[in-house]
Sequence to fold (140 residues):
Amino acid sequence: MQLKCLAMNTKILLTVLFILSLASCKKDNFFDKFPPEIMYFQGTKVENANFTGITLPADSTTYLLKARVSAPFGLKEVKVVAARGNSQDLINTIADFGSSPNETFIYQQITNIKGNMEIIFTATGTDNRVTTKNFTITKN
Fold:
């Protein structure tokens, strides 16, 4: 009789512990897995997700850099920085995304290209997650 009571109490205890463990599990939001995304492109849309640089002719001094920036919870800010050697210059800060805060297309004219340089996009989502992606401009 005592063995049956002990077995029953053990089953009840294990059942209660199991229910408590399920109740304490944090439910993951599907979008938590996706930070802001930055994709550069050449034509009218993103065709190559790995496009991260271009080689310009020696006499070129400007380039129109196109980027699609998105974030599942919305965009808070996008910064564009030009890096030459050890110096970095802020080119643009975008914080108004109008009626589509989850996705924006940025057409940034890069000027005064005298040599190799990096353009750095930094996107911050409304959930404060940050993504940075570089674009390399080299000259022949």
User: Anything to note?
Assistant: The helical segments are 2-23. The radius of gyration is 25 Å.
